[in-house]
Amino acid sequence: MNELKLKKPMIIKICLLLFLCFLCAGCAKTTGEPLTLDNLAGKKVAAMIGYSTDYILSAANYGLDIYRYDAYSDMQLALKFHRVDAIAMEMDEAYVFCRIEPDYKIALHAKNQIEYGYMFSSDRKEFLPEFNQFIQKFKKTEEYADLLRRVEASAYAPYQAKKVKNVVTTDRVLKVAAFDGWEPVSYINASTGEWEGADVELITHFANSLGAKVELIDMSWNQMLIELGSGLVDMMLCPDSLMLAKDLEMGGHITMSDPVFLKDIVLIVNKEEK
């Protein structure tokens, strides 16, 4: 018994030493050189798995070593401890990320002005042509221009949400899968318990054009795809690049809308190093 008590602290020390060796090896410092479109080949870039950033930057012409994560916090830690050279984000979320986390900054626009649309369930075919007709008109309005201005301003201050009242005049219901905590796209206001965000406002305007009740349902990304493919929700509030349309529509369960936004894909780096 005494011999065992003597050995246990030593075993713990050895385990801790092995863990630290593994951690340090995994956190070997990345290149540290300024990122340009000419030197991206071979760079380690973190991206959210399955997102437009992952799909687009995985193209062979970039030559990137993509590290895929399912949480933004994991990507942030990977960058902080030099497991990757940069994080790939869409411009609107990068605005907020760099405002909240001042140790990071936008280093490079990897892809500009990409068309983004929404995913609709193929089981509710009537909503897609109605939305496409709506968005063509809505993009010409002051409400749409103001929405874009407030998204851009979220780089300097919290997104200034505007309440859009849902005016219901029919018995129609638009079931929308949404993702909480995604300023300025969609999030639940902690004080009021209500959904806010640029895309929340836009889709409420769409519901009003139909006289339909909009029902926002909080879901994870993976759950959204399952529910949408099963026809349990009518659409996803998370916009995606139309470059994914062919692959997403291949199974026959999902269809993509006409362009809603133009977005840039940017690379985020540690501020003190670039």
TrEMBL record:
Residues spanning the signal sequence: 1-30
Keyword Signal: yes
Name under which the protein is recorded: Solute-binding protein family 3/N-terminal domain-containing protein
Boundaries of every Solute-binding protein family 3/N-terminal domain copy: 174-239
Species, as recorded: Formimonas warabiya
UniProt keywords, alphabetically: Signal
Taxonomic lineage of the native organism: Bacteria, Bacillati, Bacillota, Clostridia, Eubacteriales
Residue spans crossing the bilayer: none
Any Pfam family: SBP_bac_3
